Amino acid sequence: MEKFKIITNNKNWMESNAILQVENISNYKGVVYIAGLPDLHAGRTPVGVSVIVEDYIYPHLIGGDIGCGMGLFDTGIALRRFKMEKWQNRLNTIRELSDIPCSIGFEEDRIPDLGTIGGGNHFAEFQKLEKIYDDNEFNKLNLKENVFLLVHSGSRSYGQKILSLFNDEKGYKVSSDSAKEYIKLHDDAVDLAKKNRKAVADKLISWLGYEGFCERIIDCTHNYLEVYENTYIHRKGATSSLDGMVIIPGSRGTLTYIVKPSLNSLESAYSVSHGAGRKWSRSLCKGRIRDKYDRDSIRHTSLKSRVICHDTELLFQEAPEAYKNIEDIINVLLEFKLIEVIATLRPLITYKG
User: How far is CA 86 from the centre of its chain?
Assistant: First the structure.
């Protein structure tokens, strides 16, 4: 069996440097197999990969944002109560989410920034149902015609602290004390990241003036270790196909897909894509699209949704053009029979801060 596979087709843009990074990792001790998913792109380590390893763990492959993932929540707010201008104006008054009290109590030395989203491609997006493709599977979610909230965030500073302690690229034998300690802290960070997404959702709903708490519908992690059949699956920008339905968003102003993994395949290292995947580095974005947008138009999308962010530079770095086409990603996953599309969600307001 080949050591790695890039899951893509001729229509999906793929960065050669990312493929070289995958090939390099395939030579690490203990690596059994690597799948590069269609959203694969280069980073400090490649993003959009699932690495199956025996006897070793490599914390640097997962990175500092341990537990980062997507949480989809039902806000409990009927769609008819959504008011674009009112919500936009209210959300625009938030300078920092950390300024809003958190309803979940944790020791501040563990995660002082609990209930915050983070920078880069992290976001919280209010959405509505766009289209149902599989009524039977969709009905299992027991969803009403409400406003939904998708939160993309992780363990924040806590995960970064953990990585700083275990950043040896040579890796660690699973039997070593270092590996055991890392796994313990890693599991804690994954749990905190999940709670962090819930805290963000509850904060935003409270700020909009609604009582109650968001109900978690789906939560899927894409930066973490999963133990499977005596191996350690290292996922960086990849979601497990072993745990039920998955959320796959595109860039801002595009649809989000609710999918059901349809094949627990070694070919994909038991994983599916986590999103669209970057096409351009952040340093290139503004120069390539500065003539297309101004400070106002970059806060509107082709689907008539709005974007709230006080950092215009970040808006250029995270522009839709900087990412692959989410339909191309979904079509590759369908072509390889890795998913079934259950439904799509349409953006209303995207908040970054």
Answer: 28
pLDDT digit string, tens, across residues 9-35: 999 999 999 999 999 999 999 999 999
Closest-CA residue to 115 (of 330, 353, 286) = 353
Q: Environment class of residue 275 by beta-carbon count within 10 Å: exposed (0-12), middle (13-18) or buried (19+)? A: buried
Q: Beta strands 231-236 and 47-53: pairing type? A: antiparallel
What's the rounded Cα separation, in Å, for the pair 233 and 194?
19
pTM above 0.90, yes or no: yes
Angle between helix 84-92 and helix 177-207 axes, rounded to 10 deg: 120
Q: How far apart, in whole angstroms, are the C-alpha atoms of residue 83 and residue 254? A: 20
The one catalytic residue in 41, 186, 222, 274 is: 274
Cβ neighbourhood burial of 97 (10 Å; 0-12, 13-18, 19+):
buried
To the query of whether residue 274 is one of the catalytic residues in this protein, the response is: yes
Contact 235, 201 (CB under 8 A): no
CB-CB contact of 314 with 95 (8 Å)? no
